[in-house]
Amino acid sequence: MLIRKPADLHYSDVTPKEVYLNRRRFIGAGAATLGAATLGALALPSTALATTKINGLAQTGPFHNLGDEKPSPKATVTGYNNFYEFGTGKEDPAQNAPKWKVPTDWQIRIEGEVMQPKTLSLDQVMKLAPAEERIYRHRCVERWSIVVPWIGFSLSTLLKQVQPTGKAKYVAFETYYDSKAMLSPREAGIPFPYVEGLRLDEAMHPLTLLSFGMYGETMPNQNGAPIRLVIPWKYGYKSIKSIARIRFVEKQPPTDWGIYSDREYGFYSNVNPEVDHPRWSQKEEQRLGSGFLGQGTRMATVKFNGYGDQVASLYSGMDLRVNH
Amino acid sequence: MNRFLSSPWTKAAVFVLALVPLGVLLWLCWEAYRSSDFVPYVTANPIEYITHYTGDWTIRFICFTLCITPLRMLLNRPQITRFRRMLGLFAFFYGSVHLAVWLFLDPKQNTIPAIWEDIMKRRYITVGMLAFLAMLPLAITSTAGWVRRLGFKRWKKLHKLVYLAAIAAVIHYWWLVKSDIRLPLMYAVIVAVLLGYRIIVWMRDRKRKPAVSAQPTVSAG
User: Fold this and answer.
1) Pairing between strand A209-214 and A228-230?
2) Considering the entire predicted model, what is its pTM?
3) B200/A2 touch (CB, cutoff 8 Å), yes or no
4) CA nearest A285 in B: which residue?
5) How large is the C-alpha radius of gyration of chain A?
6) Given an 8 Å threshold on Cβ–Cβ distance, is A286 in contact with B47?
7) pLDDT digits (tens, 9 = 90+) for B154-193
8) Which of A5, A7, A90 sits opposite B43 (nearest CB)?
């Protein structure tokens, strides 16, 4: 009779409910491959984007041109994202994030080691400087890369609105978090709200972009609406999305993936082919959207993602293997 | 039921069904190749998609293969064993495609020293390779000729390597995901149940040692 026992087990008994539901979805996806109906659904364009055009864009400036490297197709950049709050699969954010309504009264709080903390509305932030289009390389720690025409201005413009005290050495950032619309930390496997940090000189560097749009329009939800950072010489997860809070601090702040594993995701996380991720080499990358099956799209990764001329001096004298 | 299970048509149907994932993948690649926008078919990162797709089907077919013995015992239908070799070979087939995509298309330096370094240095690749190597002798000795050459007892012993392949495949998946372990956890539970069943049967049989005939010997078919 012993023998009957395992057969009577249901996965719903031994598996947490989320896993169980996910399993059904997963098996559904597998079964779906059998059904022509779903094949049709697969071919549908990804969810419509609720974005609007940004007028008066300055399409000049030192960061507007990237030579031969043209922006990746918009469908690639908006259809393949790491935004764990909206799902851990690459296609999940494009499915789930558009359903989320960006709060209309969005505010960014700037606080910590400053003379006078400030809270700015999104409108106030966007009026601080003319919007520029900047075409940046974006390299993910997972070895894929894209080229994106971001819209925004240097983060330093915003940070200059407050007066940091002499103690301020780092800047910490925090993503908006709504537990009703987003995954739980348990599901995603990383802490929420998502946190990131930069050294003050990195945050003040002109390349560090505060971005509220791409491809001539406001930011799609899955790419970090309404406002995010873009730090083109660092791996993608440093470029925090949907910023709600900025805090000047004295000590190196915790970073989300660093909390998960600081061996794999160091504080600096500069793009560096000489330092392997523990689980894979960083010497090569796959440039997405430039061809099917990667013909001619696999390329050698360049130190600081090709921005060494501008940023290498920030790290002079530092051992980038230790401070990876 | 017995007629259904013994019918050559059933076997042919299972064969065709097992090919469906491959057919779907080829169709998706073809549509993606023809279309100016391949994102809806194979995502923005086709190589990663194909790697995960074939990896998923490898671990699923390993699970299907491991279901055969428990099903046979629980339903008391020895004919079910007819499907085991084919399912196992499909696990090996999808695993081979998975390995080939990693070897030739993955964004890394595709020189032999670099690949060797990856296998030795990255534990999820080491254990994935172990899973593949455990399946290799099983695929080679899957023919009736090899059962004869090895003798059924030894052949059966060798094919216990499938348990190693299953465990290694789950660990491979577990170690490669970044933080969301829900899917590897699901496969870990499935494999644990399928292997746990065998352990329970083995313990029960050990207790009733004299009654050797309790477990009918089944041919390799």
Assistant:
1) antiparallel
2) 0.79
3) yes
4) B107
5) 21
6) yes
7) 999 999 999 999 999 999 999 998 888 999 999 999 999 9
8) A90
